[in-house]
Each structure stands twice: as structure tokens, then as C-alpha cells.
Write a structure and sequence with these properties.
The complex is a heterodimer of chains A (82) and B (272). With 82 residues, chain A is mainly α. In chain A, 73% of the residues lie in helices and 0% in strands. Chain A has 5 helices and no strands. In chain A, α2 runs parallel beside α4. The two termini of chain A are 13 Å apart. Chain B has 272 residues and is α+β, with helices and mostly antiparallel strands. Helix content of chain B is 39%, strand content 27%. In chain B, the strands form 2 sheets. A 6-stranded antiparallel β-sheet of chain B has the order 1-12-3-4-5-2, covered by helices on one side. Chain B has a 6-stranded antiparallel beta barrel with strand order 6-7-8-11-10-9. The radius of gyration of chain B is 25 Å and the shape is globular. The relative contact order of chain B is 0.13. The chains are: A mainly alpha (82), B alpha+beta (272). Chains A and B meet through α1, α3, α4 and α5 of A and α1, α2 and α3 of B.
Chain lengths: 82, 272
């Protein structure tokens, strides 16, 4: 339930709210769950707002999502989060 | 002594391998989506923006329905009063800056003994008004969407103006009926401009703010208009703060856009 709420908040945050809220939702999701939703929220945010150009500017939300999802994997393992 | 890690069993039970598998396949999938979007010239972005602006429109209509129902009217009354006052302040600031800009421009014209042709009037004939169809604060790239696209003769590079002819941004990408606008003061955007006759390069800081440096001996005051010749001699901001260091040959000038972006509902798009 929490996972779904955070995912929906992240998606709506990407459309309505300041960027820090989306990042917060992505961080909480990635910290607690092995959440593939984080990757899609990051990609959606970049698709919505990023000006045209291949890697110019850098797709920071997609990159952040990848770092969060895979970077927090050892931490999740250590704290036995499911 | 049992050296087996006690939590291994728990981990296997609580964290099924399918979680990591899903994560792995999702990673591959988003990389494929990203590459496909780049190859197809942004087709997925257009879809995402279309869906985003529809959700935004839905959100706005829900908000208006709640407003209309009288729910939370006291709080709403205070908020609307606050918004109106903020809008009034922003409008006055914008008008004051526009007046200053016109005054400077008039002086230049007088010096040149030319009659002003009225750049503003000419542009207004060739431009269109477009609604803002996205949040102005949700983007970390300093972008927002407007409800006019190449079907309305909008093209990448067109200028986006406020009611008082201040440049807010440039069209970065035009779809059929919507366009993505990149703010003139988006983070990392550089614009050539003039402040009191001194040529400067203004660096965007995001949130309608920018900064530049000027020679220490140059005359500049708070409230001076910042005009960009490359953007059709239009105003792009107003000097908000000047920081001087006696040891430096330059002074740091902070600039802001005298437009209340959060209250903005329509913009004007003209060819550059």
C-alpha cells in the first residue's frame, strides 16, 4: 500500500509539484523497496520537462533513479527490507 | 560455533529474487525506451507531455470545482487575497521596469534622432497568445508547456513574452498543439544583454533569477532594466541586488524577472 502511494505521489509530483518532492518519493521508494517504479518516475520526469537534445542537458532524473535503485540495493539487503 | 549469517534465511524469505529480476528488466526497458525516444526524434516525449498536460488540465478543473463548491472558503479567501496582492506587486514591478526600459529606449532614440517605430506594436501583429498548460515550478530544467504548437505556426526558437513585453523564455521544442518552453533564466542558460549601456553576459540561475558581473566603475542601480539586443531589444529582467567587493575589479549583479510566474496563465509567442 505504502509503495503504491509513494509511486502515485511520485508520478503526480512529477506533473504538479516542485522537483524535490519527486526526488523525495523516489528516494523513499528506493530505500524501502526494490522498486522498478522509481525508474519509470525518473524517465517520465525527464520526458516531461527535459529540453530536446541527446544527453544535453543530462537526464538527471533517470540517472538519479538508476543510482538510487542500484546504489541502495546493498543497504536494502543489509536492513532486510522487502 | 555457528558462523552462518543469521539473517540470510530471513533475507531470502523476505526479499524474493523476483524483485531484483524485475528491477534488472525494468532497467533494460527504460534504457531501450530512452534510446528509442532519441532515435525517433522524441516521439515518446510527445506522448508523455500530452498525458502530462491532460493530467494537469484535470487537476486544474478539480481545483476549480473545489473552489466553486465553497469548501474551505475562509482559508481560500485568505489565499486568494494573498495571491491578488502578490500579483499586484508583481504587476507594478513589471510596469515600473517596463517604464524604465521604455525611458532608456526613448533616450537612445532621441539621441539617434529617429522616430521609434514601435517594435512592440509590430510584434504583436505577428505573434499569438497561448495558455500555459503545465506547472511552472515542477521542472528542474526551467521548462514549461504552452498550448500552441507548429499547427499554430510556433517553431523552436520563438520568443515567449509576458504582457509587458518581457522575454520569459524561448520555444525549445514545438509539437503539433503544444510546445516546450525553456526559461530565459533557466539554470545554465547564458544570454547577451545590456545594462545601462554596458554589455554583459547574463547567466540563468533558475526560478526567474540570473546573475552577471560588471566592471566596478560602471554605473548600475537597483531597478535598472536588463535589455537583450539578440532578443529584439526586449527586456529580460531587472537589477535586484548589487554586491561589490573593494578588492575586485568587478561587481556582482543579481537580476530577477519582474513577472509573477506562478500567477501567469497566458503568454505571448512571437518570432525572433
Amino acid at each position: 500500500m505504502t509503495r503504491h502511494l509513494l509511486a502515485v505521489a511520485g508520478i503526480l509530483g512529477a506533473i504538479f509539484a516542485p522537483p524535490w518532492l519527486t526526488i523525495l518519493c523516489m528516494g523513499l521508494l528506493a530505500f524501502r523497496y526494490p522498486a522498478w517504479e522509481v525508474l519509470f518516475i525518473g524517465l517520465l520526469t525527464d520526458f516531461l520537462w527535459m529540453p530536446p537534445g541527446f544527453f544535453s542537458p543530462l537526464p538527471i532524473f533517470t540517472i538519479t533513479a538508476l543510482i538510487l535503485v542500484w546504489g541502495l540495493e546493498p543497504l536494502r539487503k543489509e536492513f532486510l527490507f522487502s | 560455533m555457528n558462523l552462518y549469517r543469521q539473517n540470510n534465511g530471513l533475507y531470502r524469505r523476505w526479499m524474493p529474487r523476483s524483485g531484483r529480476k524485475r528491477l534488472f528488466f525494468a532497467t533494460i526497458f527504460i534504457i531501450i525506451l530512452f534510446v528509442f525516444d532519441a532515435i525517433s526524434g522524441g516521439k515518446l516525449r510527445v506522448l508523455a507531455r500530452g498525458a502530462g498536460s491532460s493530467v494537469w488540465g484535470l487537476g486544474v478543473s478539480v481545483q476549480e470545482s473545489i473552489h466553486g463548491s465553497g469548501f474551505l472558503s475562509t482559508r481560500r479567501g485568505l489565499i486568494s487575497e494573498n495571491t491578488v496582492l502578490a500579483e499586484q506587486i508583481a504587476r507594478l514591478q513589471e510596469r515600473s521596469a517596463a517604464y524604465q526600459m521604455l525611458k532608456d529606449e526613448n533616450e537612445v532614440f532621441r539621441e539617434m534622432l529617429h522616430v521609434a517605430g514601435g517594435v512592440q506594436g509590430r510584434d504583436k501583429k505577428s505573434g499569438i497568445t497561448a495558455p500555459i498548460i503545465s506547472s511552472l515550478r515542477a521542472s528542474s530544467y526551467g521548462t514549461f508547456q504552452v498550448g500552441a504548437g507548429f499547427a499554430d505556426s510556433v517553431a523552436a526558437g520563438d520568443l515567449v513574452l509576458s504582457a509587458e513585453n518581457f522575454v520569459i523564455g524561448r520555444v525549445a521544442e514545438a509539437d503539433s498543439h503544444t510546445s516546450l518552453v525553456s526559461g530565459i533564466f533557466a539554470s545554465g542558460v547564458f544570454t547577451d544583454a545590456v545594462i545601462r549601456g554596458v554589455a554583459v553576459t547574463v547567466e540563468g540561475q533558475g526560478g526567474g533569477n540570473a546573475r552577471t558581473t560588471m566592471p566596478r566603475l560602471s554605473e548600475v542601480a537597483v531597478g535598472d532594466a536588463v535589455i537583450s539586443a539578440v532578443l529584439g531589444a526586449r527586456g529580460i529582467g531587472v537589477v535586484g541586488n548589487i554586491a561589490e567587493n573593494s578588492g575586485s575589479a568587478y561587481k556582482s549583479v543579481n537580476i530577477y524577472l519582474p513577472v509573477n510566474l506562478s500567477a501567469l496563465k497566458f503568454v505571448y509567442i512571437v518570432k525572433n
